[in-house]
């Protein structure tokens, strides 16, 4: 056994390290694990042909399995991408389909991909401050052009889960040289409850396929191999791509690496010191490359038009419930939606639901491998992020806890004030995945070494215990697999539920809108509001963003807050508020000259040219009658929409 060889003093004396620790920071190259498949073949040429297919099969098997699993989980969308939407988070699917369409259009028309005037009229929207996902929208633009954003969305969601699992498998196999261990770790990192939760509308957060590659690039800094500058260019390129997928995850990865490397440096200061000079060259190269490419996008995000500072106050209180760590998520086979709903902020932020069997197993693993420096670093990193994820007002079972809140010391700092606290628990998932992979490899090593030792003793004594030792080893191995199943099977995800996509009238799907909405016109959906704004974005996406809308679903600076804290959606003028009250509260407003003048002023200030009311809206008769009086001309029914041209009204003195 090599468990006790990972303490720095013993390593120094004996000139060796524990396998997991050495691999993790040295970046060991992959060693084919199928070499034993050649055993039993006398003719090497025949053997090579015979094992070529099995070897390729076993190499590809995890990737294929991950892809199949992702397709199954998203099968409700794949059956009809244009007619179904995710039940748990419809609004974010609307948003990302809009973003994918906008990204494809910016490439086709050479528009500014960092800012859009198509939404939030008349102010426009800072897309760098609203998760532009350009690293997804631009490469998949041909799919959007050919099949539509609904198909692109399902595709990037599928690749988010499968790609994350595949990337972690690739990296863990490089570091551990053990396919089974890497497959277990990759599967957990890609399909853990947190990933399934984020997949309900957040392909930018579920798609973590670049993070393990960035991690591998960092761990290999200062090791023999490529030149430091080349390694820096690789790291810088990966960072640039990740910025255009999701910056929050990149920030969390940087925090996690700092914590892990501090723990590692305490145990192995001389090792890291020896690697520091080359590592600094690589880091300097990465910073230079990323700085040159990102200087303008980041300036635009933090200082450009439509920038904001910090998230809305209620979002900053989205912390993980302490009880969630030993509970099951609603989309796990052992989960209960009612229980999960009581302790989760919402269905898309169940980032810390790992179940009590896994928590107990991890405790045993940490005690067992406590002398392994990598395991210690992972354990410390996981605990720190678990505590931080509780937010500034910790809770357990929905009830406030009177305990110190470390995140409360950080959440007002720049950058930290843009992190949703519960998402700090997203770091815990890959930490656990790596711990599981290391544990599986160590267990396999122990079983193999024990069996080899028993066989050697039997051979030395001419005892017939060799076969018995092999049977014992197989039994122990099966027991290990059983324990792993008991721990992980309850977390098996279930297919994500979907519902019928909200109806989009023919007015938009048949290009009829071109006859009624002027070129560069601004549409206000009636009635305005949260859900109506989502419908307006769907109308816009169906029309390939060929008109501009007032409002929408986005983050923008609060005009009433001098610190420019973010708020969701626009500020609604008086006329928009009245229409919402008619629709939602059955309010009645008499149309007076003063009210008509106020409406004209509101529409003029926003640049609104056209009002659109769905004919199927349940309050359509009341809203139509009221708008006929306000605008002064009756609405026109076309393609399932009532249409009012307000330009004569706003042009009047």
Characterization of the model:
The structure is a single chain. With 653 residues, the chain is mostly helical. The protein has a domain of 146 residues. Helices cover 57% and strands 6% of the residues. It is built from 27 helices and 13 strands. The strands form five sheets. A five-stranded mixed β-sheet has the order 8-7-11-13-12. A two-stranded antiparallel ribbon has the order 1-6. Strands 2-3 form a two-stranded antiparallel ribbon. Strand 9 and strand 10 form a beta hairpin. The longest helix has 35 residues. The protein starts with 7 loop residues before the first helix and ends with a helix. The N terminus is likely disordered.
């Amino acid at each position: 056994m090599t468990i006790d060889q990972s303490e720095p003093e013993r390593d120094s004396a004996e000139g060796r390290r524990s396998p997991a620790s050495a691999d993790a920071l040295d970046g060991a190259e992959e060693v084919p694990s199928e070499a034993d498949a050649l055993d039993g073949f006398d003719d090497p040429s025949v053997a090579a042909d015979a094992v070529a297919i099995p070897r390729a099969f076993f190499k590809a098997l995890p990737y294929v399995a991950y892809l199949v699993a992702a397709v199954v989980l998203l099968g409700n969308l794949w059956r009809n991408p244009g007619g179904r939407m995710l039940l748990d988070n419809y609004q974010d699917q609307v948003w990302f389909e809009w973003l994918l369409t906008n990204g494809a259009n910016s490439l086709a028309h050479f528009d500014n991909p960092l800012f859009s005037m198509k939404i939030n009229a008349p102010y426009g929207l800072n897309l760098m401050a609203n998760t532009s996902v350009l690293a997804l929208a631009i490469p998949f633009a041909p799919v959007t052009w050919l099949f539509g954003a609904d198909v692109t969305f399902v595709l990037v969601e599928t690749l988010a889960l499968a790609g994350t699992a595949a990337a972690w498998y690739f990296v863990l196999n490089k570091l551990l040289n053990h396919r089974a261990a890497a497959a277990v770790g990759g599967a957990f990192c890609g399909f853990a409850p947190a990933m399934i939760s984020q997949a309900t509308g957040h392909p930018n957060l579920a798609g973590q396929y670049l993070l393990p590659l960035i991690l591998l690039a960092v761990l290999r800094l200062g090791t023999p191999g490529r030149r430091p500058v080349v390694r820096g260019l690789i790291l810088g390129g990966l960072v640039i791509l990740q910025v255009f997928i999701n910056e929050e995850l990149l920030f969390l990865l940087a925090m996690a690496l700092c914590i892990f490397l501090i723990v590692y440096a305490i145990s192995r200061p001389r090792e890291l010191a020896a690697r520091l000079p080359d590592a600094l060259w690589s880091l300097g190269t990465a910073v230079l490359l990323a700085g040159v490419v990102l200087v303008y996008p980041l300036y635009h995000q933090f200082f450009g038009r439509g920038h904001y500072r910090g998230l809305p106050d209620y979002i900053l209180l989205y912390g993980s419930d302490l009880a969630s760590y030993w509970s099951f998520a609603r989309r796990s086979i052992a989960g209960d939606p009612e229980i999960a709903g009581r302790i989760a902020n919402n269905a898309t932020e169940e980032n810390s639901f790992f179940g009590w069997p896994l928590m107990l197993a991890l405790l045993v693993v940490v005690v067992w491998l406590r002398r392994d420096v990598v395991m210690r670093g992972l354990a410390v990193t996981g605990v720190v992020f678990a505590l931080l994820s509780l937010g500034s007002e910790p809770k357990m079972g929905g009830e406030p806890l009177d305990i110190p809140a470390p995140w409360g010391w950080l959440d007002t700092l720049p950058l930290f004030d843009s992190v949703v606290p519960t998402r700090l628990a997203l770091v815990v998932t890959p930490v656990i995945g790596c711990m599981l992979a290391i544990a599986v490899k160590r267990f396999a090593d122990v079983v193999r070494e024990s069996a080899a030792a028993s066989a050697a003793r039997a051979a030395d004594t001419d005892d017939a215990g060799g076969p018995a030792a092999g049977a014992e080893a197989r039994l122990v191995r099966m027991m290990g697999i059983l324990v792993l199943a008991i721990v992980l099977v309850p977390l098996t995800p279930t297919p994500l539920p979907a519902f019928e996509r909200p109806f989009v009238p023919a007015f938009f799907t048949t290009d009829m809108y071109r006859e009624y909405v002027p070129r560069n016109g601004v549409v206000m959906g009636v009635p305005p509001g949260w859900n109506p704004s989502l419908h307006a974005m769907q109308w816009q996406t169906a029309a390939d963003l060929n008109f501009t809308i007032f409002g929408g679903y986005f983050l923008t600076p609060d005009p009433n807050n001098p610190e420019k804290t973010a708020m969701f959606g626009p500020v609604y003028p008086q006329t928009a508020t009245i229409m919402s009250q008619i629709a939602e509260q059955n309010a009645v407003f008499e149309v007076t000259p003063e009210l008509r003048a106020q409406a004209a002023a509101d529409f003029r200030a926003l640049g609104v040219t056209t009002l659109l009311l769905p004919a199927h809206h349940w309050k359509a008769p009341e809203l139509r009658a009221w708008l006929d009086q306000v605008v002064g001309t009756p609405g026109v029914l076309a393609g399932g929409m009532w249409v009012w041209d307000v330009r004569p009204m706003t042009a009047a003195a």
